[in-house]
Structure formats: structure tokens, C-alpha cells
Write a structure and sequence with these properties.
Layout lengths: L8 E5 L5 H8 L2 H7 L7 H10 L4 H4 L2 E7 L4 E11 L4 E8 L9 H16 L4 E7 L3 H9 L3 E12 L2 E11 L4
Parallel strand pairs: 4-5
Antiparallel strand pairs: 1-2, 2-3, 3-4, 5-7, 6-7
Helix pairs in contact: 1-3
């Protein structure tokens, strides 16, 4: 049985065959603002990354998963980062890179699946997400899924000569 499976999508580990997908995604300047990327990645570096992607979240403090249709088409990535088992928290990021799959519930289902994993398998207390102030779709998505806006990091991201605020969203597992 696939643990990270929903009704319309499933999440899976990165595979060597994902190199071209990862290369296109990581080298797309449209997402550099949210990923913190400042220069392109080579296929060599990404291949090295994929060779080490199997490492345990407790070792590398992150987990990156492909968002796939039930037919196996990769439509995006969802990440856990800054895993902190002592304080029982982790950050989450998501990108649905295939535009045809946006606004269809793919992101919501992926976040729901991963939150369930974080709370029930990893036993964490909270998940947080950082969203740029002008990213209305993500603000709506995280709010709809029960994440609370708990703070604003003023002038946090510099892009194209302008500073933007970043909103901190948090979802706490209250055992309900």
C-alpha cells in the first residue's frame, strides 16, 4: 500500500529519471524568487543531488517528493525543510510546475497528504510555510487548509530591485 496516496495524486521519492524534470524546474527563473536560487544548476550537480536524495530526513533535515497523477505524471514538487525533531516542527514548500494542473486541487491534496504524514508518521507538532505577500494563490491555499497567518517578515525577499514581505503560516497539530 502506498502511504502517501490521495484520491487523485500520490507523492513519491525522487528517482534518477526525474533529472530532466528537476533541471527544468530548478532552472526556471519564475520560481527563483521563492526558492532562493540565484544561478542555474547544472545537470551534473542535480544528478549528484538525486544520487543522495534517498538519505533519511533525520540525517539531511529535508525531504523532497514528486507530486504525481495516478497515471504517474510528475506535476510538481513538495518539500519538507528545516526538519527539527527536538522542537517537533518542519517547514513546507510546494510548487505545482505544470500549469495545466493548477487550481484543480492538486496542491491542496498534496499538502493534506504531507501534513498527515508529518503529524501521524513523523509525530511532529507543527508545520510552517513561508509565502510571499503577492502570492495570492498560495495565501488562499494555505489559509483554506487550516494554516494560520502568524507573522510577517518585513522586506524579507529582494527581487528585481524591490523588497517584498514574506508571510509566515503555521499549522499546529492539537491532537484533535
Amino acid at each position: 500500500m502506498l502511504t502517501l496516496k490521495g484520491e487523485h495524486i500520490f507523492l513519491r521519492a525522487l528517482e534518477p529519471e526525474d533529472l530532466d524534470f528537476l533541471y527544468e524546474l530548478e532552472n526556471n527563473p519564475e520560481i527563483w524568487e521563492i526558492s532562493g536560487t540565484t544561478a542555474p544548476y547544472s545537470k551534473h550537480i542535480l544528478r549528484y543531488y538525486l544520487d543522495n536524495a534517498h538519505k533519511d530526513i533525520y540525517e539531511v533535515k529535508q525531504l523532497r517528493l514528486c507530486i504525481c497523477t495516478m497515471e504517474g505524471k510528475v506535476t510538481g514538487l513538495i518539500d519538507l525543510f528545516d526538519f527539527d525533531p527536538q522542537n517537533l516542527r518542519v517547514g513546507m514548500g510546494i510548487v505545482v510546475s505544470e500549469k495545466a494542473y493548477r487550481n484543480l486541487g492538486v496542491g491542496a491534496e498534496a499538502i493534506g497528504i504531507l501534513c498527515n504524514y508529518v503529524f501521524s508518521v513523523l509525530g511532529l507538532r507543527q508545520v510552517y510555510a513561508n509565502v510571499l505577500e503577492d502570492n495570492e494563490p498560495s495565501i488562499h491555499l494555505f489559509s483554506k487548509l487550516g494554516f494560520e497567518k502568524v507573522g510577517i517578515k518585513k522586506d524579507w525577499i529582494s527581487a528585481n530591485g524591490k523588497f517584498k514581505d514574506e508571510i509566515l503560516f503555521q499549522k499546529i497539530n492539537k491532537g484533535e
